[in-house]
Amino acid sequence: MVSTFDIETGNFIYRDFDVNFAILHDKKMTNISLAGNKLSLVFDNIDIDKNDYSVADNYEEYKAFKKCTVEYELVDAMGLSCAVLETDLNSHNEYKTKILSLREFVIIAPDLEFDMLNTTISGSGVQTFFAKYIGKYSSVYLDLFVTRISFIWE
After folding, report:
1. Chain Cα centroid distance, residue 13
2. 136, 121, 110, 115: which is closest to 15 by C-alpha?
3. What predicted TM-score, i.e. pTM, was given to this entire model?
4. Reduced to 3 states, what is the DSSP secondary structure of residue 35?
5. Mean pLDDT of the chain
């Protein structure tokens, strides 16, 4: 099953989009790749629990799927998309930030232990992906300028 959300043409139903991301929010990302203008995030070994869903239809629709690839088609002609890594606040309310290009991030991402996935969409077509992981930095924000987002469920 493929769920595609096209931001440019308005083929974007937020509720459906939110359901796709809700299923992945606590799943481990197992692969990331960047080829041309397409960023792909792969989530393998997906196992969902019926008790995690208040809407039974959502569980029934997705229970058989074990893998999802999220593909982002980037606008990125000028390299606007980036990764922002941040530490937690220290006792002085300070934190450190590191900004990477997507290419740099794809290289280091396999070494990070992701344990959360959330997303925010703004009206300008900017999609922000948040992944909390265990390590030197406590969170990563991928600021992505996208035209289309696809969820490929297998």
Report:
1. 17
2. 121
3. 0.79
4. strand
5. 75
